[in-house]
Design goal:
This protein is an all-beta fold. It is 0% helix and 56% strand. The protein is built from no helices and 11 strands. Strands 2, 4, 5, 6, 9, 10 and 11 form a 7-stranded mixed beta sheet that branches. Strands 1-3-8-7 form a 4-stranded antiparallel beta sheet, with no helix packed on it. The protein is globular.
Length: 116
Amino acid sequence: HVQLVESGGGLVQPGGSLRLSCTASGSIFFVNALVWYRQAPGKERESVAVIISDSSTHYADSVKGRFTISRDSARNTVYLQMNSLKPEDTAVYYCNWVVHGVYEYWGQGTQVTVSS
């Protein structure tokens, strides 16, 4: 069984930065994709960044150039570096791991609030 623990959310002023972390525990032999989603109040959950098994990365247009997804395989951790944050980035952020071709796991969510 795999468990994901997120950390790093908080309150930040516009233009500031945060780094989210998502660490997996359990037996993981192959990761198909690592995804960061977010869900703002009254909106649907959206994918903001993904890193797939060939290490290629993809970003939503709204965060391109400001967010960076990365992975530390030795630590079973995925990060989301968020720079130049805007009020519209305010949301609960969730990590999602797709492993072994069929299993999908979610983190508990971490709140990011961008406000002056």
